[in-house]
Specification:
CATH topology of the largest domain: TIM Barrel
Number of helices: 12
Distance between the termini: 58 Å
CATH architecture of the largest domain: Alpha-Beta Barrel
CATH superfamily of the largest domain: Alanine racemase
CATH class of the largest domain: Alpha Beta
Number of strands: 17
Structural class: alpha/beta
Radius of gyration: 23 Å
Oligomer: single chain
Shape: globular
Order of helices and strands: HEHEHEHEHEHEHEHEHEHEEHEEEEEEH
């Protein structure tokens, strides 16, 4: 059974000011989670978590995370501009993108971000636009058949990202010949993975590459970035990754592969998003309709535009009916939204307590890849985002969209030209 950091009374008070649906984030949960993460990797003096901005691109959340010393992992111009507006720059930004427009690189250079290239051809592309290389250069490694990936992200050899091993050696060789002296190494081979040994193997792979390239190319690496992909327990029976255990296992890898081999210091970076905010976000919605035909349906005022993952991936998100959390789950429902699409479903054949029209429903674990994946199909409006503060107060951190927002980019005068 999943628990909630709030009760029905708190939500009923909130909805007097903010109509459903809305996303609610738990500040206390985020803070405690980050303290555990930082403690688990304190053995590495240069450890840094770069939050994957795409997971929850809200400046208030980003500011909260930056106060814990987190950097920002950006993959687009808009995400870089968000950092700029918050005063985040320099080595606090890791810019990892693909098929990258020159304008995005320009903003990354302006902010002095660490640039992590996705392909060998990006060296010439970057130089052709800027006549130089960044001060710190990193490349994304795609291990191909040497790693299995996982069921979420797929097998590496089918991914569009990163360089092969021969390309990797060539890339660093070229950059060294161009006078670059500071280097990093990056990979990303998992998504929503709950097996800690997967990330241990990733670090072994990266440390071995550092050994090989340092010896063959006579370069020194400042950091390895093990990527993100640490999963969260979406299912009630899932266990979260123990940060402390993971930290100890990776520390052993560094002792065996780096420190004892005379490679000196090597900073460990990661770029998680999901495990940082995911478990601490909740989509709050109200039951507006019930329908009984071949199946029994519960219709919410939220829809797939508010949380895409169940409809897009068939992903599981736990559902609580406020005030009925401890009642027996005796009724089977499909929990749906109002889009004109049959995959607009938050749950299929889900056992719940008997649901009544007007009930408040909480969809768990929506704090990452939730609001950020929203859309306006059917003219649906994206919801508000609210931060539940540690002291029990609340802060509106993004208002709900309205119809004026939806129509703002339309030139209605064009109608008269038809």
């Amino acid at each position: 059974m999943k628990t909630l950091p709030f009760d029905k009374n708190l939500i009923e008070n909130l909805i007097r000011e903010y109509p459903t649906p809305f996303q609610l984030y738990d500040e206390k949960g985020i803070n405690e989670n980050l303290k555990q993460l930082r403690s688990a990797f304190k053995w590495n003096s240069g450890f840094k978590e770069y939050f994957a901005v795409k997971a929850t691109p809200n400046p208030t959340i980003m500011k909260l995370l930056s106060q814990h010393g987190l950097g920002m992992d950006c993959s687009s111009l808009a995400e870089l501009v968000l950092c700029q507006k918050l005063g985040i720059e320099g080595s606090d930004i890791m810019f990892t993108s693909n098929d990258t427009p020159a304008a995005d690189y320009h903003k990354a250079l302006e902010l002095n971000a660490i640039v992590n290239f996705d392909d060998l051809s990006e060296i010439a592309y970057f130089e052709s636009h800027f006549g130089m290389m960044p001060e710190v250069v990193s490349f994304r490694y795609n291990p191909g058949e040497s790693r299995t990936g996982n069921s979420i992200i797929g097998v590496p050899q089918d991914a569009k990202y990163g360089l092969t091993k021969p390309q990797l050696f060539e890339a660093y060789k070229i950059c060294k010949s161009k006078g670059v002296k500071r280097f990093g190494l990056h990979t990303m081979v998992a998504s929503n993975e709950l097996n800690p040994d997967f990330f241990v193997d990733t670090n072994i792979m990266l440390c071995q590459l550092v050994q090989e390239m340092s010896a063959e190319l006579d370069i020194k690496f400042e950091f390895i970035n093990m990527g993100g992909g640490i999963g969260i327990p979406y299912l009630p029976e899932d266990e979260p990754i123990d940060f402390n255990l993971l930290g100890k296992k990776i520390e052993k890898v560094f002792e065996e592969k780096i420190y004892s081999q005379g490679y000196g210091s090597l900073n460990l970076y990661m770029e998680c998003g999901r495990c940082i905010t995911g478990p601490f976000g909740y989509l709050i919605s109200r039951v507006g309709h019930k329908k009984e035909i071949y199946k029994n349906y519960v219709g919410l005022d939220a829809c797939m535009a508010n949380l895409m993952r169940p409809g897009m991936y068939g992903a599981y998100h736990h559902i609580s009916v406020l005030g009925k959390e401890h009642l027996p789950t005796t009724h089977k429902y499909d929990v749906v939204g109002s889009l004109c699409e049959n995959n607009d479903k938050f749950a299929i054949d889900r056992m719940l307590p008997e649901v009544d029209i007007g009930d408040l429903v909480v969809i768990h674990d929506s704090g990452a890849h939730g609001h950020s994946m929203g859309f306006n199909y059917n003219g649906k409006l994206r919801s508000a985002e609210i931060l539940l503060r540690e002291d029990g107060s609340n802060l509106l951190i993004r208002r709900a969209e309205n119809l004026e927002d939806l129509f703002a980019t339309i030139d209605f005068s064009a109608v008269n030209k038809i």
